[in-house]
Amino acid sequence: MEIKEKIIKDLDRIINEYIKAEFVPGLAVGVVYNNEVIYTKGFGVKNIDTKEPVDENSLFHMASVSKTFVATGIMQLVEQGKINLDKCLIEYLPYFKLKDERYKNITIRQILNHTSGMPDEEDYEWDKPKYDDKALERYVRSVDGRELMWEPGEKFAYSNIAYEILGHVIEKVSGMSFEEYMKENILDVVKMKESNFLKPLVSKDLLTSPHILDVKNGYGATVSEVFPYNRAHGPSSTLCSNVVEMCNYAIANINEGRFQGDKILKNTSYSELWREYASTEWGGYTSKIGLSWFLGQYKGNKVMSHSGMDTGFRSNLIILPERGIAVVVMINAYYIGTKILCTSILDILLGEEVHYIKTSLAQHIIRTMFNNNSEIALKEYDKIKQNSIERYLVYEDEFNAIAYQLLERKRVKEAIDVLKISIEIFKESANLYDSLGEMYLCEGNKKLALESYKKSVELDPNNENGKKMIEELSV
């Protein structure tokens, strides 16, 4: 069997098994191999209520993968001599300011590589979206009360605010709206005709729906009432695309800006984009930061990547430029991680045998609990632990994250149930007890909250939050 045929067969097998095991609503995968698109397929449904199937043309919200397009736009303007990476931001936006005077020293390069010291955004107001063409500028002007976390250039800290500012710089320097600039200078050049940062222009027939966790009809996915769109956050988040068109973009980057005779960038720009500027302390193939792109290695291969997560969506773009390989993954649910799926696909492309993709222990045990009860779920865990634990991703943090996702839905009782069974599995976890204390407080049960915080501090004497809460609750 030809290598390419074997890859396609193996991908079909593992992805179909994965989507059934993880109860994924919808998923799309694109693969570039030897600089050629060999795989673009959809799985599952665009919306669990309508049951319309996902295909390779289905559009997903790409979340933070959008930021790599912003960096491309900035570098285009650098090539034209309209932006200098080492000039200060205020030279391009004279009205920009933050609470302390150090903001005057922030450079474009520092904003691009997340070393500006700017904080991150906590509320994207997806439930109160702005659609007008002044939304981005209003947002950038509105951050004047924020403070820098440290001196610009000192160290890495991921900031969505920084990328909204960069998008506004593109507007001011180019004289075009951010979305119009992206379409004309990047999306159209690499034949991304269905893709757009401006949601009102995206095909409703192709767009998938966001899904979140809930327990109203049994544990699992429900369609989110809120779509993650707000023009004020266009640069950081709002690209909608499909796997076919994202593969075009991946090929353009593998070829250092070239795509079918056209260019989005000169090859010299990649020495800036893909230079290591700072450590992220995240490890693996995202251990360093370039200009928007995360850099690292996977099994001896250089990797450039970016992932994204917003309400109801996850995405990932991974490029191994020296191998002519790229993987694009899109999921219309944000409670399912993409990393293990991506690395399993990479393993197949690198010639390894992959018998299955590990699935989430947390999702399996918690689903068993809600479909049955805690006793049966714990018996299931004991059986897995003895016989097949190697087939699962065992992450304490994932149990914790599910509890908080349920809390977001105001499912406080269910969130407490999740943490209680999690503690049965991770008996020495100070963090889970700390979270349980918070959940009990949300429920109004101060007695059990105090007990949980005391247990947390007993397990971790350095838990300052736990100590603070014990002091407050003991008054």
UniProtKB/TrEMBL annotation:
UniProt KW Hydrolase keyword: yes
InterPro entries: AmpC-like (IPR050491), Beta-lactam-related (IPR001466), TPR_rpt (IPR019734)
Keywords noted in UniProt: Hydrolase, TPR repeat
Coiled coil: none
Residues of the Beta-lactamase-related domain: 11-334
Domain of life of the native organism: Bacteria
Pfam families assigned: Beta-lactamase
TPR repeats: 430-463
GO molecular function, one term: hydrolase activity
Keyword Hydrolase on entry: yes
Protein name: Serine hydrolase
Organism: Clostridium simiarum
